[in-house]
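Researcher: Next entry: Pyridine nucleotide-disulfide oxidoreductase (Lentzea guizhouensis).
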Amino acid sequence: MDFDVIVIGGGPVGENVAWRTAAGGLSTAMVEKELVGGECSYWACMPSKALLRSGHALAAAQRVKGVVGGSLDPRAVLERRTGFTSDWDDTGQVKWAESVGIHVVRGEGEVTGEREVTVGGEVHRARLAVVVATGSVPKMPPLEGLDDTPVWTSREATSARTVPESLVVLGGGVVGVEMAQAWARLGSKVTLVVSGDRPLPRMEDFVGPLVVEGLRADGVEVLLNARAAAVEPGALTLRDGRVVRGAEILVATGRVPATKDGKPLVIDDTGLVSGVDGRWLYAAGDVTGRALLTHQGKYQARAVGSAILERSRGSEPEPWSAGQANADHVAVPQVVFTDPEVAFVGHTAAEARAAGRDVKVVDLDIAVAGSSLHADGYSGKTRMVVDERTRTLVGVTFVGQDVAELLHAATIAIVGEVTVDRLWHAVPAYPTISEVWLRMLEAYGL
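Model: Predicted structure:
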């Protein structure tokens, strides 16, 4: 069949591209080999946060005097999680896609020629564009015995029907720390194995230790500077000879783009894949390697859809228009949904300095009226990184209970290049945790 646009991948990124081009009047097909809605809907963002939320809510209540007792019902938590995945049934997602004019093609799609996609031996052609939105897959480490040992990946960790008696988590990234806390709060005996001196090493240096404190408070055994050597059913052997045992072993050592060679498709800010003549091949989301985050992939998807529409009408997307994903370079927000939460956007202080910026760093405890009302003994930290030449923010990090809701203000400040002098006039409501913005600006010297 012929279409104006063919999108390979029916996750949130592919859905956003397809919806945008279909809404703009272009005939659009979306190819999906598994479930329409993709990794985020069924095995990542939604089920993982559902597993975490009940424990966070209980912990938050217990931090306020006057709340007595309380416990989690693991069965109910798992049932709630399953509700968010529609029990791994994509009927509703398919109906939505069809209702907005997207033609859903089941099967594995492969680019087999210029503007040509083959699915199960059937060739489909795109008059305008092919978009690759195939996401990413788990990156498996070179461990002795791994090929012969059934282990969990993020999929099993978010879709398990029962709570394992014990769980070993290998990897100190986002999946590792989130799943360690989720299953510990549901009653599993969890050991987290981190190869470096702290988890979340790409974030500001104070982030990992604070997350470790939270994990240990929930009974998680955290092993730092612990490198794995081999795995077998029920046991992970470290290079120093120690053996860590668990009924299940979760390997959470990162993800790589879902391409044949695991390498990203390099794109420009409109999503055009580099090195392909004719301006017909696009990519968006994890497969580009830019920022392996659902919201950022959807942002790229909106840019790609807009760029295709503009070019179909004979115009070219301008920088910072809907057809270019310029924010990828300056303001990528991320939340780690542990307790304490981590909310981060922009560049770390080290990254900013490495890029040659003259920066001033402001570090503060989150200790304002709003936080003290929010939780008795509230504990949190924040860092603001200011470019002294432009007097604008280039990075902000928050760690603490419920700090995710502070993140969008920081993202707007960075994207909008708002000076600290102008931010001084953005008055935070009292009494909220947002008061920390005023304290950061005061500490900066305003």
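Model: Note for the record: The mean pLDDT is 97.
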